[in-house]
Structures are given as structure tokens and as C-alpha cells.
Amino acid sequence: MASEKASHLATDIEHVPHGRNRAAEAEPRTSTTFDDLRKVTTVDTVHNDEATKVLASYTGDEHWTPEEEKLLVRKIDRRLLPLLILTYGLQYYDKAMLSQAAIFGLRRDLSLSTGNRYSMSASIFYLGFICGATPAVIMAQRFPIERVASGIVLVWGVCLMCTAACHNFQSLYAQRFFLGLLESGVSPMFMLIVSGFYLKTEQALRMGAWYCATGYVSIFAPLINYGLGHIQGALSPWKYMYLVAGAITILWSIVILFYMPPDPIRMRGLSDRERYIAVARMRVNNAGVRNTHFKWKQAVEVLYDIRFWIVFAIAFLMMIANGPVSSFIPIIINDFGFSTLNSLLLVMPAGAIIGTVELLAPYLAYKFPGIRTYLVFACQLGTITASVLLWQLPRNGSTGAKLFACYILATFGGGYAVLMGVQTANTAGYTKKSVTASGIFLGYCLGNFVGPLLFKPADAPGYAPGWEATVITAVLAAVLALVYRFVCMWENKRRDKIGAEGFDHAYEDDLTDMKNPQFRYQL
């Protein structure tokens, strides 16, 4: 057992040479081995973050100007953000296609109009999410994250194309479950990537940058599906939608494999100085950049972290409203009296509005420190207002007001984008960060699973019980955002009494936020 442990440690300790003497290199190997060993710095990457390798091997000037850092951040933005945005937009396009395919014959062809079958086909997708999120994050920590992401996108593209082969509701249930299983790792992995590249103050805006794709993609997806809906071929129009989307997804997985920067340690195209700055500036976060070793103590700590559980509850409650947004909005608009194709086109303004909200809220969080939890609260107010309107307005008439309610219903998305940034900024320790990233996503999945089931066919077209539940859960999520703020403020004040904030040993110790008394929580 001891020899196995020694062997394990030997594979995980890097030796970085410092200023090797050229004359010594010219001597026979047997006479320089001991001298070489004395001139190396031992970097332990089992207990510490891999960023220590970059810091230990750099021999240049360790100071940099704000202009250098700004240019570097812009370079990272140009390389990283387009890939995150397009990947997440593609995921939402695939995920939300069910509601658009539903008005093009999917419900009829697969007998989904009976009972609660359609709602279950939407919900079961998130059961797959729940089962797949944690394994995906563990793989992303243990193996190169860009390879994990590329492989997942490739297989989910194949799975998406298989939707066209579904011939009854049972086969659709199976396909939707496995599609959710495959897509589940994207959000947690993106949270890890952003937290490894950006400072706490920068993370909220970058989270919003890729998450706003869920709104903006709804501008373009209906146009694509509008065109595919006119196809008069051997297959039903909804099958062409899935075949085209799956083919695009498969091609995109190749782009991810070759071009996605995984972390500043392994990002291609950086000079030694740029890589050093990219890593060294992250010490301000009091958290690591990457550690490939899963630490069970950090994972267990999540279980008694009250802040994580509040965020988990907020994610669950606010995502109840995503049930009608992702699965029923085209159907609800169709019930207002619009034609099938026009109902699809009328979804587009909602995409523009919500995409803007999902980008604006993180931008405000970036520009004005200390208002993140207030932004989550404010975004919930839009969802509450929309839910009340759709619940209380008469079924006949008031079409304009009801369309407006449909368009602002998903303002919770802006709050969720900010919430992801809060969670990553307020978590230290790479394993803990990985676990909490998948944990908040589990809350997201549970909310999305419950949401569609609240909108039962027997309650159509008004869906009064569903809207009532949406109002209640949205209010609770808003209140919990303020509770989270109070808990963090209380803890920060307690820590202020025992010392000022520091970050000198953030990488060396790989401490969690609860173990490091110098860590401060963002509000």
C-alpha cells in the first residue's frame, strides 16, 4: 500500500528547472544528476492547483501593467466567448425544439395529445440532466475539458438526429432522457471554464454572455424551423427539424475539439508572459484555476454549506417558470388564435427581449459591485408580473396584453445568469467548485422537470393551476435571493473581525471558501 501511494505521488509531482548551468549540462550525466536535483523546484499538483506549475517555471518580470492585462482579457474573450455562446445557443436550440415541433405534427404522430404525455416528454429530458450532470463534471475535472465537451456534443448530435426515428411516445421518452443525459454537462463545464479564466468581478458578465444565447437563439431558431416547416417530403416537417439540428451539432463538436481554450494553463496562442499574467492575476479570486484530483473533503463540505443550499433552492424555484417557457409558449400563442406558422414567428420577439435581459443583468452586476442579489430579485419581478397576467386575464380578448406577458415571462433568465456568477465567485477549492457547479444545475433540472408537469391538458387553454404555482415559486425565489444576501453579509462581517482579505496562498493551499478566513463573499 505504501509503495502504491509513493508511485501515485511520483506521477503527480512536477519538477521545474530554474537557471540550469550550461557548463554543468556539458558534464557526463552521472556527475550532474545530483546537482540537477538540487536546482529544481518541486511543485505538488496533488494538493495544490496546477497553476503553481506556471508560476514556478516563469523567470521573467513578475509585474505587469493594467494595459497589458486588459489586452490579455480581450484576447481571451475573443478566443473563448464565441465558442461558449454558440455552443450554448446550439444546446438551447436543440432543447427547445420540442415546443416548436409540437405544432408541426409531433404530438399527433407520436400520440402525445393523450393525458400528460407531452408534458412528460418535456420533463423526462431533465431527468437525464439530473443523472448526467455530476458524472460529466467529474470527467471534466479528471480529463482535458475540451475533449470531454467535444465528445459530449458529438454524441448528443447523433442522439438528436435519432429523434426522427421515434414512432411512438415511449421511444420519444427514451430519446429525450438520453439527450438530457448528454447535454447535462455543458452548463457546469462552462461555469468551471469561466471561473478559471476570469476574476470574480468579471465572471458575471461572461456568464451572461453565453447564457443570453438561450434568448437570442429564439430569434433565429423559429426562422429556420419556419423554412423547414414548409418542406413537403417523405417525412413530417418536425423530423427535418431534428435531422438538420443534429447534423449542425455534430459538425460543431469538431470546432470545439480544436479551438476551445480549456484554461489559461493550456490555452494555445499565449506567450510565456501572457500565460503567467493570465494565471497570476487569478490569485485575487482566492480560488484555484484547475486541479485534476478529486478531493472528497471538499465535496463533503458542500453538504453543510448553507449558501450553496440557498442557491440550489433559488435555481429550483425560479426554473419552475421555464416549464411553460421552453415547452408551451408556441402552443399558448397558438391558442390565442394565430396560425401554426405565425405562432412560430411570434416567438421571436420573446427571444430578443429575454436575450437582452440575460445580457443586461450580468452587465449591471459587472458595472455595479454589490447588487447581484438585488438583480436576481428584480428579474423575478418580471416573471411574477407575466405569470399573474397569464393567470388572471380573460381567455377571450386582451391578446396584446397576453403576448406581452409571454414576452417577459422568461426574465428570470437574467437572474439565473447572475446567480451562476454568484455561485462561482463565492466558491473556492477546485473540487468544491466542480461539485457546486453541478449542484446548482441539479436545482435547475428539478425545476425544469416539475414545471411542465404543472401545465396539464385538462387545464388548457387557461392553465390556471400552473400559473398559480408559477407565481408562488417565483415569489419564493425572489425572497430567497435577499436571504442569501443577508447570510453572506453576516459572514463577511464576522470574518472582518479576524483579519483583512488576502490571497497569497490561494493556489498553494487550494483552500475552500469556508476553510479560508480571508475569503470574502460577493453580494
Automatic annotation (TrEMBL):
Biased segments, Basic and acidic residues type: 1-28
Annotated Major facilitator superfamily (MFS) profile domain residues: 80-493
GO-annotated molecular function: transmembrane transporter activity
Region feature (Disordered): 1-31
Source species, domain of life: Eukaryota
Location (main, coarse): membrane
GO cellular component: membrane
Membrane topology annotation: Multi-pass membrane protein
Subcellular location: Membrane
Record's keyword terms, sorted: Membrane, Transmembrane, Transmembrane helix, Transport
TM ranges: 80-98, 118-140, 152-171, 177-199, 208-228, 240-260, 308-333, 345-366, 373-393, 399-422, 434-455, 467-487
Coiled coil (residue ranges): none
PROSITE patterns, A to Z: MFS
UniProt xrefs under Pfam families: MFS_1
Protein name as it appears in the record: Major facilitator superfamily (MFS) profile domain-containing protein
